[in-house]
Amino acid sequence: MGVADAGPAAGHDPTRRISDWVAEQLLDRIGRGDLVPGQRLPGERQLAEQLHVSRVSVRAALQKLKTQGFLTAVQGGGTRVVSSAGVMDGALTEMVRAKLDNLYDLLELRIAMESWAARRAAERATPDQIDAITRVVDAMAQPGRNHGRDDMDFHVAIAQAAASPVYLHILATVRDILSHMVEFHHSPPFIEGQEELMLNHHRAIRDAIANHQGEGAAEAMKTHLRWVLDRYQQLSQGGTASPLAKVVSE
């Protein structure tokens, strides 16, 4: 628990509502990247205990942030962080679906952005963040895993290590648009015979970040994502990429 989570400070203005203070603490977490787009928040009781306030104050703060567009309700209960760039999702998704070249453009942009993030993660990652990246890579090597989810967790962990909340929100938008692409590139037509290569790609990125080799991390990320892009193009041109064609035509 950080200092910001220790309840209203001694100098807290008594004329301000506690719920406003709670909202500020949650916004600060989002701004620092401690809460990332798409992440589910702890429950009201847990937040109240963390912040040393009542559940009534937490509930009011959550409602305020929902109204302002920072949070959204989760089906079945709970709250999650929304992407500040989410208003662009619809337009970009339609552009990607309308033309295959737009999809490739988006993947090219992803290569540039994630290479930057890998370089910055190598420069700034804490030991705990490196451990988090390593745990995801280790999980990838286990049989029966949801590799699409592991891949997503890997890239989010790098984004958190890059310590740029702005990048986290941009990544969330691109990630949402490409989410079915991630599922495709962990489907049998895509990964058949390539599992060890993809795992080695992720290990190389992790190793460069762990050794604080900025250029090495950027190049390892480029190598991996360039291979992914080439694989998409090979499958689409070879007539075996029906999942890819479906993404564009849906």
**What does the largest sheet look like?**
2 strands, antiparallel
In angstroms, what separates the terminal alpha carbons? 45 Å
Strand % is: under 5%
The number of helical segments is 13
Strand order in the sheet with the most strands: 1-2
Name the helix and strand elements from N-terminus to C-terminus, one letter apiece: HHHEEHHHHHHHHHH
Low-confidence stretches are 1-5, 240-250
Fraction in helix: 55-70%
Q: Structural class of the secondary elements?
A: mainly alpha
Mean pLDDT over all positions: 79
What is the rounded Rg?
20 Å
Shape call: globular
According to DSSP, the number of beta strands is 2
3D architecture notes:
This protein is an all-alpha fold and 250 residues long. It is built from 13 helices and two strands. Helices cover 69% and strands 2% of the residues. Strands 1-2 form a two-stranded antiparallel ribbon. Helix 1 (18-32) packs across helix 3 (55-67) and helix 11 packs antiparallel against helix 12. The longest helix is centred in the middle third of the chain and has 25 residues, at 100-124. The protein is globular. Mean pLDDT is 79; it is low at 1-5 and 240-250.
